[in-house]
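G., the chain you wanted modeled:
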Amino acid sequence: MKKIILVYFCIAIFSCSKTDKKKEIHREESKKEVTVTPVLVKNKLVFSVQIAALRNPNAKLASLANMYIYNEDDLLKYRVGSFKTYDEAKVYTIALRIKHQGAFVQAMLNDLPISIKDALQY
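Predicted structure as tokens:
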């Protein structure tokens, strides 16, 4: 039994004392220029809740979560959320009216505002 332990001990000592030579592999890093082309999703209809339309930027409104700012008709329009249905946006509007009394649902087709009547027929 002592011989077996001695053999394992010698194997462990000799295997640990080996020095591994590390090979350095030089890779040429190719710098590829990637061009990203935005893809327009046709007929993307979403509903959002507009809480303000101002001539000057408002940092407090801009810092709110899920805020989208649109520059339309020389006004900065602050819209919150992106909903698939009018009903979802309407429920969210009711909750927002506690702080923002003039909040209303705005339909957006391909990031352009359309009337709710047209959106509901879409």
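The chain is about 30% helix and 30% strand.

Shout if anything looks off.
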